[in-house]
Amino acid sequence: MNEFELIARLTRALPVNPSVVVGAGDDCAVLDGGRPGHYLLLKTDAVVQGVHFTAAATPEQIGHKALARCLSDIAAMAGQPLAALVTVALPTDFKPDEVERIYAGINGLAQRYGVAIVGGETTSNPERLLLSVAVLGEVARDKCILRSGAKEGDALFVSGELGGSRAGKHLEFEPRLAEAQWLAANFSIHAMIDLSDGLAGDLPHILQRSGVGAELLAQAIPISRAAKLQARSESSAKPPLLAALGDGEDFELLFAAPSRQAVPLLDGWKKQFPRVRLSCIGRITKGHGVKLRDKTGLHSLKTHGYVHFA
């Protein structure tokens, strides 16, 4: 049983109440907290030593990543983060100075995005360090973007470049909060997700929730320099395109919008965010599943994204 099969099993009969607008199955839970015109967003995520970072990561990078992962999910809903709780589970040989440096990484990112750190929990975990962060955010009701709204004929876009994130980006990325809020304010974004498990792993979440398929154009997928360098220097490295499709931990935005908005969206993005690449990589189609069009034709995509305990 892999990660997503287990999630499906555990979420079959979760209790809800009238405040739940969207429960398990999207980037964040969406709740009606009673504030007129707004929804609350709830997100939790964890980073584990040996899984999400190695001994080469600095304490500041570990703290940054722990919070940034949650903020990236808030961005996927076009929301604004408000406050966070931090649970830190420490091995028996922990060093207080290093824990303070982890919090320095959390605090620096939180201050940049106006996020209050309002408490949490400390506990022990004898084998390895674990950080769990829960974030509360909000979004205007008419701007909240789910995974479930993609429509046949929509254009598919992705921010940034993909693949090779383990070369360093996964520890230092900036969540695309401003970009997502700009998209929601200026265009009809039908569906959006952040890329944590790879394009090949996360696009199917949009397709399944929306009841549609997708066609990707291989030559349009933005491949990172890190993925290209790894392919040249390491004999065991994935081909760059496969890295871009399946590596994971890119934390970029993948979204669907009406094709008629493609040109003004690309032009507006370039003016608003000149340092962040935006690419139109394909389209939403009728049916189901992902197909990849390359120089040899159209093929079913067999590459998979990252999956825990696959």
Provide an overview of this structure.
The protein is an alpha+beta fold and 310 residues long. The chain folds into two domains: 3-143, 2-Layer Sandwich (60s Ribosomal Protein L30, Chain: A); 155-300, PurM-like C-terminal domain (Phosphoribosyl-aminoimidazole Synthetase, Chain A, domain 2). 31% of the residues lie in helices and 27% in strands. It has nine helices and 13 strands. It has helices spanning 3-10, 59-76, 96-112, 169-172, 177-186, 199-210, 225-233, 240-246, 262-272; strands at residues 20-22, 29-31, 38-48, 80-90, 116-124, 130-140, 155-159, 191-194, 213-217, 253-257, 278-285, 289-294, 297-300. The strands form two sheets. The chain has a seven-stranded mixed beta sheet with strand order 8-10-7-11-9-12-13. Helix 2 (59-76) runs parallel beside helix 3 (96-112). The longest helix has 18 residues, at 59-76. It is globular and about 55 Å long.
Give a topology summary.
Blueprint: H1 3-10, E1 20-22, E2 29-31, E3 38-48, H2 59-76, E4 80-90, H3 96-112, E5 116-124, E6 130-140, E7 155-159, H4 169-172, H5 177-186, E8 191-194, H6 199-210, E9 213-217, H7 225-233, H8 240-246, E10 253-257, H9 262-272, E11 278-285, E12 289-294, E13 297-300
Parallel strand pairs: 4-5, 9-12
Antiparallel strand pairs: 1-2, 2-3, 3-6, 4-6, 7-10, 7-11, 8-10, 9-11, 12-13
Helix pairs in contact: 2-3, 2-5, 7-8
